[in-house]
Records
---
Amino acid sequence: MWRVSRVNAEFTVCPSYGKLNIVPNNLTDAQIVQCAKHRVGGRFPVPVYIHSVDTSFITLARGSFTVAGWRNVDDERLMAGIRGNHRKGFIICVFHDKGKTGPSKTEYDSIYPQWKRVNMKLPSVSDLRESISSLTVACNDPNSERWLSRLSSARWLSHVKEVLNGACLVAQLMEKEHAPVLILEQESVDMSLVLTSLAQVILNPDSRTLHGFEALIEREWIQGGHPFWTRHSMSSSDKETGPVFLLFLDAVFQIFTQYIRSFEFTEKILVLLADHSFSSSFGTFLCDTEKDRNNHSVREHTVSLWSYLNQVEILSVQLNSLYAPNNSVIWPSVAPMSITLWTSYYLRWVQDQKNQNYERRKISEIIERNKTAKIQALKLRKELQDLQEEALSLGLLTSEEAESIRKESDALIEQEKV
């Protein structure tokens, strides 16, 4: 059904995509080139995740808007390949301004009849820039009597809620409706990445492990072409700056607080990633695209952030002691009362984090002692069993006495489970 295409090996088809891309196997590379010409910035729809429900495999894909004014048979064939053998699919068109919703609904209904279009309004880059600026002002003076009004007027938590709500819709269409989803955005480098990434955190247990989360960011954000340099420019006059990646991390934090035992990592990794995305000694978040990183030989002259994080002494600090693998889909609440301020990031310089860190350290110590005690208990039970067998062979115990001891041991094990 799918194959790996090297048509963009020289970054000539789409400068913001990586060298390798997954495409339907019924399309040739020449047809993919034609598809790219039909999309803004050459960002033709690509699958980013295959979700398994029962015996069905459902595709999550993303791409940019089509070039208005003409049809493209190869693009229609590509869309059919993404839909697969499902009767219908959903196109989620992300827009930021009223009245600007991308290609017309009539166009999509006539050209892609098996796809149902859903319009979704999400904050623009400028909305996020203004919002985080207002939030920063509020967080610099949390003791002010105007704290609550400033926090509300910043609308940052509202933006977090909006993207979480959008991601839940995507996950619901795939999990409940068993329908493939294609997320379209004008340039497909901002909110489409937020939605696809959050949907995978909700649907895919592997994305909630440390290495899986690292792979998600590498795949969706770095290889996916999010312009980190442009969005994180230090020039306040740059109208293209905006904390899109920070919005994603904040939304992950919200899911983490609701399902803390389902994540292998703690919020510390989210803070660390936010910091390094703005300023870092590593090359992972440098440049806007893979093409730029290739031209500047970033990988040859810098060290990857992942190689640092995956060192044993660093990795151990990021692990969640409460983690219990959960292979189910998790459904975060998007009710306003469920969305909280990420204090360990926004208020870390003005609010003492010692008590919080102390509590977490004590919890980790208790859990580790409990694990050690369980291992010791298993070892002692094995020794008891060996001694029973030896006593039986020497005639020091009768079989009835050995059975009585075994029952007492089993009763103790049941009490521990309770």
Note: The longest helix spans residues 354-394.
---
Amino acid sequence: MSSSEEDSKIDLLDSASSVKKKLKKAFCEPGNTADNGVLSFCKYVIFPVALKGEDFVVERAQENGGNSNYKEFESLEADFGAEKVHPGDLKASVEKYLNRLLEPVRKYFDTPELKKLTAKAYPPPAKAPPSGGKKGGNAAAQPATDELIPSRLNMKVGKIVEVSKHPDSDKLYVEKIDLGEPTPRTIVSGLVDYVPLEGMQDRMVVVLCNLKPAKMRGVESAGMVLCGSREDPKEVEPLAVPEGSQPGDKVFVESYEIGEPDEVLNPKKKVWDKISVDFKVSSEGVAQWQSNQLMTSRGQVTCHGVKNAPIR
């Protein structure tokens, strides 16, 4: 975690995913307290600035010894030197406190004016055009990042304003969904066996909007209604949005609010398939990605009918 190394330097506007990536790369040898950037970060940033009188908690599963609390940096340093604290557990704890420290800064800069100012002050390096490629043309826009993070997903609150059975399938609904766009989108969903027709009409749902449009039994679908989905026993229920949500409201994963979604998720790279592996409904019925909650500005996204299940 050196300021001279771009891959490990922590910036005030780093996203939660960038913090995780940089901490993962940071040198943190077991028992090494003399040359350890993560420990130094604890000493000079986390303990004096981020804790605000709290204990520093290293969280561990019970079978690995359970949590350890530290009031002073010296006690943490001694336990790390004695290899009582694993580097992975230390990094996970630093990540938690560091993101909590940075989050107010991220939110402050999450306005169009300040984003524009930041982009001018710290312009991204220009990307070289692919070798052999043609200039101009109708090439698809490149994603802002190759990281598999949920900020690449364009998720919105939608209202089903019209729904009917698919003309060529007993398992599919064809929905017109208001997403706050000039016209409703047509989306096809395999929910006939799980939600009655009257339960779909006027329902508020979460829609993944930047999938590549695809035909389903001859009807083009321009998105996907996200659902809690269990295979055994087979249960499916659309995610529920917080009360007061409106069509077009942004749906995001906490700590990943900042970042531009891909224009279209690349189906060849299976971006959605890889990111969706970590989406689930918790035992409390809360929609999550890697334990971070799925949110709108009005609160949590939930699914109380299908708990402890993947989101698809």
Note: Confidence is low (pLDDT under 50) at residues 2-6, 127-139.
---
Amino acid sequence: RHACAVWRNRTAKLNTKEAVSRLMLTEEAAAVGHEASIYLSLNKQHTEASKAQTQTLECAANTDVTDTFMEYITSLHVPLKEEDQKTLNSEMANKDSGHEDVKEHRSNLEKEDPESLRQRGNDLFKIKQYTEAISYYSKAINIMSGNKVDERLYSNRSLCYWKLNEYKLSLDDADKCIEINSMSLKGYCRRAFALAELVQKDPTYCHYSGAAKAAAALTIHHEPTWRSHSLMKKYFPNLNIKEASSATELMQLCIEQDSTILLKNSDYELDCLVIMANVQIVGLKRYTNVNCKRGIAILGHRFGRPVDCHFENLHFPPTCRDLIVRNGSITTLYRCQASNGERGCEDFPNCQGGPGCKNKTIVSCAERAEARPGYRKSSGLVGHAGLQVEAGTLYADQCSIVDCGGEGLLAVGEGAHAVVTNCEVMKNSQAGLEVRNGGTLKATGNKIHSNKF
């Protein structure tokens, strides 16, 4: 409440550049804006909350703040999720009720055993009381928050949501389960079945069939008996799982239509990778290294038809060139790390030919800038985006887009679309996310910080 009052008073004074400089561009100002946005969102004042959050992020972007502070101001997003609202309202109610009530509340929580709550939830699940079971799993999760939550709680709650046809919530819990244990059998199973339903029923997920197949393939890899499960047969009757132990095998399998390729080893060194078929490329280890010295191109079928391609658990290292989506193709990335893209001069746009200069021509970077009178002063070779969309669509979810050669992701030109969710975008040589010339970008729930531009 106090932060909100300070923020409103400060905002009312922002009528001169001097005031903006004095009041906005400090870490303390960003902290006040963050606290105010949370308070306003809790009180359903969403317009002001969004304004406060926008000012907070603008302040942080123009202030030298630590990574820890960035994590703090991006830990909650406005408008608040229902789960966050309940948690914060509960904490505020406890504070208002007095110290003795708080102590009693904490004492009661300590008496509740997460394992007992989980078992009670399991008992309710067996008699098909799914909503009640969810409440017990949620209580156990809340008690364990701050410590490592038992992945079974998310797995069980995911199944309950699936039984109640709440497929998006089921997917969210499956992802949390995988976040705890990157090779969780039940996590991937829940994810496969939730995505299979969402692909059929929610237009937002119509392009995630490859992601669903990848989750199903990982389930079967970890437990082969799941292939004969009735739901697996129902959702994935023609699942074509292949394994690649070498770069040569990977290149050969990439031309086989509708195949899910599991990468058995840790490193794959290729000259280039051209994808012209619907494929899913999935690392069995996180992160499986895929280094393509001349880049990765999702070009579509040779007869002009676009393709759907899915990448999962992969790492594109700094020595890997750009990943480019063209010809109307669709690419999804899940739990990947992109650090690729052709490198430009380290000091771009102010390269003077010193260490880190990539210019090998007879005209130096400094001379190039002087030879262009009338242009904005800049010098140096521009790096390339790690992920580029030129004519098609790219979805990135729960990925790290870090230290790319130029931008982290670039959508350029009409017909180029990108959707980035729940990703960390940081330390890229130029902008973290960028659109140009009619491209479109939708970004939600991301941590974007410490990029050069």
Note: Residues 15-21, 98-103 have pLDDT under 50 and may be disordered.
